[in-house]
Structure formats: structure tokens, C-alpha cells
Write a sequence for this structure.
């Protein structure tokens, strides 16, 4: 998500959809908390604090890792970007601190937030589509460019799907101008994959499947691990159709490397938790 909107516009479709995503996630999180006996007032305080901290922390991390010029060379002017994984990581730190202060289970709180976060992302991706952020690769593979790895990660898919075009001022349009694919006065960008909608549909499917799991009866933290792994796989694959992430290793973007780290960490977590429980049992 980029802070790349007209500063004179106070109400935008993206803003309204983002607010809707927060409210839906808030409502579902309160329901989850009450279902396991956690006072919903904890959620009313914790969710806005973690969201604010996540956005602030994500923006700060973005300034520390200025990689966005790599999406189209130095010619493309991009604003401060709040990366999703940075936002979630900073929010998780707040949840951890809050759980210690209020003597609540950190892992159980993460379970409470897991599926509502997915529901919020489903709605949020619709806003991304309308705003033009998180845009996709070129649908056609007929445009030879030295940035081919950036905008045509899977060229063999060219022509198999229809694309969308964004107007001047959009990030996709700016990228294509910076790469020399279109003239600055072009009325629209080249057709790109509506990858935001692809992710929204896949996350909706994930939500419908995961909600059938009785997470309250699972070991604490396991639902969060399952959701993280599933999202990491979805995001890793869809990154091949996105053109907004810098390619840093072969054909892999920084986000794909983060997904691999998440998957590796998640597979180790159950074993570490089991060892911790065994150690506590021995000491007891």
C-alpha cells in the first residue's frame, strides 16, 4: 500500500473500503474473544493500538529499506509504502506486550485475531484494486524491456487472461512510463493482471475453509500458524503476477523471501512449543 493519493481528497473509495475492512475485522475479533471468555473490551483497546503501531512501524521500516525505486528504476517516484508483513509484525509486538501486561495468553490472542485479519484482507484487496496499488504484471508479453523480470515474471502466461488498465497518475501508469513502455501522455497504462482480486478470491476461499476448524479446541497458537502458512503460500505464488515488489534474488521479490522465512519459522514453531511445554513439565 502506498501513500500515493491526492492530499486534497479527504474521502476516497480506498479509504472507505479500508475502514470497512477494519470494522469487519474488529467485529469478528470481538466475537472470537467472547467465545473463549475474553472480555471484548480488551479487543476494543488492543485492535486500534496495534493497528496504529503497525502502520507507524511499517512506515518507519519502509524508510529504513528504500527498495521501491527498483520497481521501475529511479525515474518512478514512489511515496512511503506500508508493507503488509511489516504492519502485521509490528502489530504482533503490541499484542505480545499487551498480553504480558494484562496476563493473557499471547498465542490465544493471536488465534483470536487470525481469521478476522484474513476477512479484513479480503475487503482490503478490493480497495487496492480500485486504488491501483499492488498492481499486476503485464498481461501481454510482447513488450521487450530491460525490466522484463519486474513486469513479466511469467511471460508464458501472456494472453491467457484479460487485464485492467489504470489512468494517468496511477502507479501502474507511472511504472510503464518510467520503463518507456508508454508515452507520458498515454491515456491509460498497459493491461495488467487484476492480481488484487485474485488474492481476494483466494483469501475468501481460505476463510471459508478455515472457519470450519474448531480453533478453540486446538492447541494455542496452532490456528495462527495454519493461517500464516496458508497466506504465505498464496502470497508467494501471487507475487509472480505482481509488478510492485522489487526483485532482489533471481526472480524472487523481497516479499517472497519473507514468505519463505515465515513458512520455515512456522514449521519449527510447533516443535519449539512442545519442547517448552516439556521443559515446564519437568521443572514442575
Amino acid at each position: 500500500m502506498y501513500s500515493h493519493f491526492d492530499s486534497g481528497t479527504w474521502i476516497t473509495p480506498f479509504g472507505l473500503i479500508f475502514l470497512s475492512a477494519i470494522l469487519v475485522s474488529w467485529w469478528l475479533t470481538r466475537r472470537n474473544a467472547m467465545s473463549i471468555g475474553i472480555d471484548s473490551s480488551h479487543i476494543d483497546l488492543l485492535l486500534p493500538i496495534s493497528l496504529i503501531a503497525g502502520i507507524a512501524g511499517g512506515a518507519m521500516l519502509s524508510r529504513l529499506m528504500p527498495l521501491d525505486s527498483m520497481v521501475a528504476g529511479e525515474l518512478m517516484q514512489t511515496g512511503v509504502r506500508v508493507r503488509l508483513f511489516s504492519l502485521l509484525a509490528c502489530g504482533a509486538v503490541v499484542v505480545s506486550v499487551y498480553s504480558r501486561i494484562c496476563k493473557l495468553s499471547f498465542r490465544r490472542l493471536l488465534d483470536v485475531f487470525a481469521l478476522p485479519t484474513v476477512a479484513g484482507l479480503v475487503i482490503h484487496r478490493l480497495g487496492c484494486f480500485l486504488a491501483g496499488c499492488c498492481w499486476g504484471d503485464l498481461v501481454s508479453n510482447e513488450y521487450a524491456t530491460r525490466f522484463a523480470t519486474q513486469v513479466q515474471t511469467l511471460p508464458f502466461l501472456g494472453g491467457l487472461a484479460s487485464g485492467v488498465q489504470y489512468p494517468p497518475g496511477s502507479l501502474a501508469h507511472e511504472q510503464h512510463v518510467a520503463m518507456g513502455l508508454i508515452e507520458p501522455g498515454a491515456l491509460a497504462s498497459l493491461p495488467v493482471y487484476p492480481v488484487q482480486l485474485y488474492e481476494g478470491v483466494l483469501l475468501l476461499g481460505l476463510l471459508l475453509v478455515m472457519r470450519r476448524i474448531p480453533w478453540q479446541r486446538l492447541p494455542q497458537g496452532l490456528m495462527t500458524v495454519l493461517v500464516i502458512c496458508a497466506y504465505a503460500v498464496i502470497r508467494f505464488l501471487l507475487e509472480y503476477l505482481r509488478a510492485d515488489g522489487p526483485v532482489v534474488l533471481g526472480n524472487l521479490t523481497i516479499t517472497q523471501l519473507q514468505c519463505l522465512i515465515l513458512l520455515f519459522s512456522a514449521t519449527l514453531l510447533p516443535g519449539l512449543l512442545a519442547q517448552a511445554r516439556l521443559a515446564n513439565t519437568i521443572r514442575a
